[in-house]
Amino acid sequence: MNAPASGPRRPLASLVSALRGSPALWWSFLYFFCLLSGYYVLRPVREAMGASADVEAIFPPSMIAFFAARGMPLQDFTLQVLFTCTFLIMLLLQPLYGALVSRYPRRVFLPLVYGFFIVTLLLFYVLFDTGVPGRGMAFFLWISVFNLFAVAVFWSFMADVFSNADAKAYYGYIGAAGTIGAFLGPFLTRTLVERIGIAHLMLVSAGFLVICVVCLLRLRLWAVQREREQRLVSGEVPMGGSVLAGLQLIAREPLLRWLAFMVVLGVGVGTVLYNEQAAIVRRLFTDPAASTAYYAGIDLAVNALTLLVQVFFTRLLLSRYGIAPALLIPGVAIIIGYSILAVSPLPLMVAVVQVVTRSSEFSLAKPARETIYTRVPREWRYKAGAAIDTVIYRGGDLTFAWVYKALSAFGSHAVFSAGLLAASGMTLGAWRLLREVDKLPAERPDASPSKKEPAA
Questions:
Q1: Is 232 helix (H, G, I), strand (E, B) or coil?
Q2: What is the per-residue pLDDT across 281-334, written as a single tens digit (0 to 9) for each?
Q3: Between these two residues, 250 and 131, which has the higher pLDDT value?
Q4: Residues whose CB falls within 8 Å of the CB of residue 405, separated by 6 or more in sequence, listed in order
Q5: Most CB atoms within 10 A, among 70, 198, 411, 419?
Q6: Can you tell me the distance from the alpha carbon of 149 to that of 167, in angstroms, rounded to the nearest whole number?
Q7: Pick from 2, 317, 364: which is nearest to 166 by CA?
Q8: Region of residue 59 (phi > 0: left; psi between -120 and 50: alpha; otherwise: beta)
Q9: CA–CA dist 285, 190 (Å, integer)
Q10: To 5 degrees, how large is the angle CA 450–CA 452–CA 456?
């Protein structure tokens, strides 16, 4: 699986050449396309739930009564409560996930993760079809877990399939396949939601995840082949080690600490925008279908810009200049956007900066960060990487959701000034991360004839 040779060829011609030369890239394309299609079919439903003024559709009646009895109407703390519960669920799931990847081989735990999400989607079909109270909260929490775990597992698996050179050449293209899927998802939602209802969207998403399982089973063959050819530690045996090894590695390793630091502040930037946008939607839309369609439109704009960058710039930057530009450019763009918002926080500018923030993360920063994992041991990827993308990520969400709530009392200028500080810190974190990356070997350091992963 060799990376396509660099040269002056047009990006689309390079993509066609890469697809012809790597069957594994085809399956990776289909995998990420279906994964993000399935997620983005449901994302507008989640956003509409988070911005909904119908508190009875979101929270269980007992929970509404509990908060009301204490003088805390839930409609004033919807996102803060949802983000707090999401973080607590992540804390509970992280040891379970750590136990899964420690005790079971790749061929077992990867299908199990996606099988769990498929089964729960069928359950949500029933909940939405029957209008069970509190379904909004349950779904918001579930899809927050699904998004992070499913995508984190995907990228960890890609580092088993592809080398560092392959990653620099292919990850931009794989990301583009996901972006095309992210286009299809909201398009299907806008087209179908008013015809078939929200409940049936759960079945559409479940169908995409079934295809993901087929893809990962096929790609496992190339992962095994690469590990044998390069005498890497096999992913076909249990990884071993502690179920909390991911968090322990983050505390111990400087590179992982700076990755976590960068992710937390990057999440903070997005969370501030997300909350401000939800407040705008709550004022402008009262119909759930209309707000769902609005969020689908925002997703389409994000994905359009993301795809443009992925196809024409990501591979060029990663292959020729390494990960530094891809990590630093998003930070600079977000600093500029937040500087404008701090001076003039207009609703239209909030939407524009939201598009720039999310598209730069998906098209540049995320592929750049994931190439780093091709140069570290498997335990760093599957345990520490997953911990960063779940517990650490949602911890940042939780922190900045409450920061936003406190600062919103002082107006939008205060909110976006704090966001500007977070964006500056994120860019500093990217610079320090690059210094740690320079110390890594060119490829994974776990080359060995041994069949067992070293204990944590």
A1: strand
A2: 777 776 766 776 777 777 778 878 888 888 888 878 888 888 888 889 888 888
A3: 250
A4: 77, 80, 275
A5: 419
A6: 21
A7: 2
A8: beta
A9: 16
A10: 125
